[in-house]
Amino acid sequence: MGSLYSEYLSSTKVQEHYNYTKETLDINDTLSRRVASALIIILCCAIVVENLLVLIAVARNSKFHSAMYLFLGNLAASDLLAGVAFIANTLLSGSVTLQLTPVQWFAREGSAFITLSASVFSLLAIAIERQVAITKVKPYGSDKSCRMLLLIGASWLISLVLGGLPILGWNCLGHLETCSTVLPLYTKDYVLCVVTIFSVILLAIVALYVRIYCVVRSSHRDVAVSQTLALLKTVTIVLGVFIICWLPAFSILVLDYFCSVRSCPILYKAHYFFAFATLNSLLNPVIYTWRSRDLRREVLRPLQCWRGAAGAQRRQVGTPDHHLLPLRSFSSLEKGTHMPTSPTILEDNTVA
Predict the structure, then answer these.
(1) CB 3.0–4.6 Å: which of 184, 281, 289, 324 could bond 17 by disulfide?
(2) More confidently predicted of 80 and 321
(3) How far is CA 76 from CA 194, 230, 280, 281, 303, in A?
(4) Mean pLDDT: which of 226-230, 251-255, 272-276, 326-330 is highest?
(5) 3-state secondary structure of 318
(6) Is the overall model pTM greater than 0.85, yes or no?
(7) Long-range contacts at 192-195 (CB < 8 A, ≥ 24 apart)
């Protein structure tokens, strides 16, 4: 046990593993790297702000305290933490990487794996909730909150365990020949295991949605069918965007398992694939607000309040406020002047 902790706190282990798995260490703090890091941090700050607005909207409005919105809020929480984790990852990359101890490196990469796991399990929880809501014949009430809390709690607990396995011992310290090229302190077996678990879960979610679609299409309740299909479309878009964003990163990790050390130069560019995957956390809040008029209004309320306060201040100093007309025009859209009369996308009270 003592030798294990001594390796975890060693200041040379990280450099030893990077020297073994990579032909060259691109750690120079160049201008292009600084610009790229700044852009990534700005992107991640936008992710944090977007998902924070969604969480505030869900928390402050009792209309959004239904199962579906709470699960979307849980997904927004995982996306928010993913943005924070990627900021930390960016700040601790480059020349800083080789100065880390193994335990610091595990914390840096483990946080990203935990948030990714939480996102996947949140998608699974949403699919399970939809399946139960569609197929349950009798109304359910008291067990609904319990089931939601259990699903959300279980998703985070499993995510913590799955992301924490390397720091608990499933790593390649002392076994360089088993190390991943993309993640030089993780074993290839662990990386492949995680990707396999995520892939199986995503396939299961797709199967659940296909089954839900078949059940809904066979229903004779026209109103319920219309609302449920709209909701199903929303969660299917969320799932599809997740798969599109993360498929390249999953593919590079699978390739890492089958490539021998230093034989696949594309693995040295894996950070581009993970940067692309981060776009998923940026797009999810856009999908929520685009598909739900009520949620969009609630999310944009802080901006409207800020502009209203700015307009009041200008009127106090005698400044004309004709430039505020676009806000009024937007408000008229939100009230439905130019919006279609179809039911609100995420409102699904008939099946929830």
Answers:
(1) 184
(2) 80
(3) 22, 20, 11, 8, 19
(4) 251-255
(5) coil
(6) no
(7) 192/253, 192/254, 192/257, 194/113, 194/117, 194/162, 195/250, 195/253, 195/254
Query: Given this model, what pLDDT does residue 291 score?
Result: 79
pLDDT level of residue 147 (50, 70, 90 thresholds) = confident
CA-closest candidate to residue 261, choices 77, 80, 40, 17: 17
Mean local confidence (pLDDT), 133-153? 66
* CB-based contacts of 134, cutoff 8 Å, min separation 6: 212, 215, 216, 228, 351
Q: Look up residue 150 and give its two tokens.
A: 């259990």
- Residue 319 has, within 13 A of its CA and on its CB side, a CA count of 9
- Helix-, strand-, coil-residue percentages of the chain, each rounded to 5: 80, 0, 20
CB atoms < 10 A from the CB of 263, how many?
9
User: What is the amino acid identity at position 64?
Assistant: F
Mean pLDDT of 189-208: 94
Backbone angles phi, psi at 187, to 5 degrees: -75, 150
